[in-house]
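Cross-posting from the modeling subforum.

Setting up a comparison between two proteins and wanted a second pair of eyes on the formatting. Protein 1 (sequence, then structure tokens):
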Amino acid sequence: MFNRLVALFLLTSIMIVTLSCSDNTKNSTPSIDLLTAIDKENIEIVQQHIDTGTNINNYPVPVGIPLAGAHPLHLAVVKGNVEIVDLLLSNGADINLEANNKDKATPLHWAVFFLQKEMVDLLIDSGAEINYVDGNGTTPLDTANYTKVINIKDEKKLSIINEIITALSNKNALSASDL
């Protein structure tokens, strides 16, 4: 009888240790909010949010915080994180989702404004509307031209924005006045 109790105790202990060491991240509650996970570029936590059903298309940065109105895809684009952008897009992020602010700009507008050339290319290749008119009445090409003006004295930024303008133009981007 004693041997059976010892065996049962050992078996139970092994099961408890095994279960406590197993990877339960898919079903666990994320330890930080989605926007912070994106800001910290923590793809595992972003995946946890997706796995637990966080609505990635309705999770804007709150008013009063820098980048207010940005949705997760906007923020990932600004961060320039290809992995997180791909993860969000492959899990239903709306590539043309307007920011939840007066500008109503899409992630492509944000990629242009924040000089994220790689993100511009990725979003265009993923199907972003290249001539989307935002709340200011501007397309991504208009945003690029504006960004060029405000960065005219910075050669490095000017070089990047010229590459972005070329990329947009090569995809037949238009100014809002030409639509």
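Protein 2 (same layout):
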Amino acid sequence: MSSFSVHKAALEGQIGLARSLLNDDPKLINSKDQDGRTPLHWAASTSNLSVLQMLLNYHPDLEAKDSMGWTALMIASAAGHSEIVKELIGAGAEVDAVNEKGQTSLHYAASKGNVSIGRLLINHGADINAKDRASQHPLHRAATTGNNAFLQLLLNPPEGRPKTRLNTADRAGNTPLHLAMESGHGDAAVVLIEAGADRERSNSEGQVPEEIEGVGGQEQKKVREYVASKVGRRIE
């Protein structure tokens, strides 16, 4: 970014400078820097709502993607800026846009465990069962991070919406339950089992969730024992 670029002004919250540059040349609103990012991308990466609202007055391309395929909404979702996410959705941003990895904004909200952003996305139509290039759904992401509140959000979609696919396997054959156990998140595993997760489903290596090596040693043993104490031992 040059020292006086509209991109830098958006990033640094220099509303007056950004407005002046855009008034001189309105086409700058969709100009891309070396990262393929527009001023809107940089504004979305901050929590400065005023800058974003000013940029929206110049009718930016809400679906512009950077060099990695990220939209402004994806950036805001991953960064945890709920007010920015709300503003972009209100302006018409596509909630199910995908990047080069096939991931949506909901995937990133799930990875970060940001329930308020997840709820915003879902309430505005985000696909709970969106699948990325690793064949992972947002539920896989939430299980990996062990965020029970996000798991519950995904497991209880709004009335009339499709149910979350609880036992879908990713490219490695792992279901969300496999990933919860592998990551040592006993509470998350219990939530999934109580919701109906298949405890006998084998992954590509022939492992059922509660036999997966995961964090290993005594820690993994403790997770297995904890799960068994809450939901009983699996019948082999």
